[in-house]
Amino acid sequence: MQISKRLTGLTGGGSDGWGLFAKARAMVARGEAVTELTIGEHDIGTDPEILAAMDASARGGHTGYAAVPGTPALRAEIARRVAARTGVPTGPENVLVTPGGQAALFAAHMATCAPGDRALFIDPYYATYPGTLRGAGAEPVAVPARSRDQFQPRPAEIDARAEGARSLLINTPNNPTGVVYSPETLAGIAEVCRARDLWLVSDEVYDTQVWEGRHLSPRSLPGMAERTLVIGSMSKSHAMTGSRIGWIVGPPDAISHLANLATHTTYGVPGFIQDAALHALRQGTRLEEAIAAPFRRRREIALGLLAGQDIVRLIPAGGAMYLMLDIRATGLSGEAFAEALLERHRIAVMPGESFGTCAAGHLRVAMTVEDAAFAEALSTLMEFARECATCDAI
């Protein structure tokens, strides 16, 4: 029996981008000490208060089927949060609760794209984006954002690829680059979406991790609320990665259809997890800032270390829990450098090539180990880069 092409073709016949991560995890499983700076997983657990709320809800009986669009209280709290942060009037009817941001991305493209429709996304991209679009039946079309532009996408590049497209997926603050899209970039993106009648799918799961400037949700721009689906999640803002709870915010009609899709796919999110998310959101910015603080601190550590050399170039890290490092001065690809760094120094970082062609010759470094270990690993990476650039170390 054959598996459907929808599944066998998810990665487009190429790598899924996770090869080095899998290799590092295999080394750890063998008992080797590896400093893992690969995935966006916090080095702290979920706050005990959130876990206590989850436990109390489960023990209190909220373990049966929960409301598929989300519990009324959680939908209302998410709407309140979004309205307060963006200034856009938002009610529960604008919110669908999903099993994490990844499920939200898939559902959003099921809503916006018919089979075979062109779906635009920005390169560099989070590794699952092209497969998510293919899984929804769309044809993924990459729009380049270049290192020389500090990975800010050019609206003209989007417009040049927009013929026949139905949607555009963006992510700011950005994974993998750490870039926060400027107001000018977002205004240009919005102009293209309006002119080309595109849905905008805006992945904003890092909206609490902004180190410079401010996060601007494109849903707040003129004429965009009716054509924007915003993806949110508790994973990054509240260190709830394993709880799998996120949301989509959009026009009520779209949310109604998405709720129907959820009825036929996920059948919602467990009630006790929704109750824990509600408790977490009601803590306000106090908890969000505490979760973000280690990454803000480690970014400052990195800025200090990188300032003392000229081989490794930091792409301006305005947000998110990652650094994007340009290591082209070493003469190596991101893949070759990352493989050698893992083999020789037991430090695992993600090669830029895992995130598209535009990030070739770069590395994504997750700031996800404690401060001293992070500083030591980054110092070792820079020294290795110097050796590669001056002594043909590979």
Automatic annotation (TrEMBL):
**Aminotransferase class I/classII large domain: residues covered:** 34-380
Give the protein's cofactors.
Answer: pyridoxal 5'-phosphate
Q: Name one Pfam family in it.
A: Aminotran_1_2
Q: Which UniProt keywords apply?
A: Aminotransferase, Pyridoxal phosphate, Pyruvate, Transferase
Q: Where is the signal peptide?
A: none
- Has the keyword Zinc been applied to this entry? no
* Broadest EC class assigned to this enzyme: transferase
Instruction: Please list the reactions this protein catalyses.
Output: L-aspartate + 2-oxoglutarate = oxaloacetate + L-glutamate
What GO biological process, any one, is recorded here? amino acid metabolic process
Q: Which InterPro entries match?
A: Aminotransferase_I/II_large (IPR004839), AspAT/PAT-like (IPR050596), NHTrfase_class1_PyrdxlP-BS (IPR004838), PyrdxlP-dep_Trfase (IPR015424), PyrdxlP-dep_Trfase_major (IPR015421)
GO terms for MF: L-aspartate:2-oxoglutarate aminotransferase activity; pyridoxal phosphate binding
- This entry's Enzyme Commission designation comes to 2.6.1.-
Entry's Gene3D superfamilies?
A: Type I PLP-dependent aspartate aminotransferase-like (Major domain)
Q: Which family does it belong to?
A: Belongs to the class-I pyridoxal-phosphate-dependent aminotransferase family.
Q: What is this protein called?
A: Aminotransferase
Q: Which species is listed as the source? A: Pseudoruegeria aquimaris
